[in-house]
Amino acid sequence: MRIPNGKKILLALASLLLCFQFSYSQSPIKDSVRLEDIVVTGSKIEISRKLVPLSVSQVSRKDIENSGQINILPALNTYVPGIFVTERNVLGFGVSTGGSGAISMRGVSGSPNTEILMLIDGHPQYQGIFGHPLADAYVASDVEKVEVIRGPASILYGSNAMGGAINIITKKQREEGLKINLGAAYGSFNTQKYYGTIGYKKDQLSVFASVNHDQTDGIRANTDFNITNGYTKVGYELSKHFDLTADFSIAKFNGNDNGSVYAAPVPFNIDITRGKASVALENKHDKLEGAFKLYHNFGTHDLSNGFHSTDNNSGLMFYQTLRLFTGSNITVGTDIKQYGGKVNQTAVKDSLITVNESAVYAYAQQALLDNVSLSAGLRLEHNSKYGTELVPFAGLTYNPSLHTTIKTSVSKGFRSPTVMEMYLYAPNPELKPERMMNYEVSWLQSALENRLQFDFTAYLIKGTNLIEVTPGVPPVMTRKNLGAFTNKGLEFSTKYFLSQNLYLNVNYSYLNLEKPVLAAPRQQVNINVNYTYKIWTLNVSSQYIEKLYTFIVSTPTQLTTKTLNYNLLNARLSAKPTKSLELFVAGNNLLNQKYEINYGYPMPGIYFNTGFNVRL
Question: Whole-angstrom Cα distance, residue 477 to residue 539?
Answer without folding.
Answer: 50
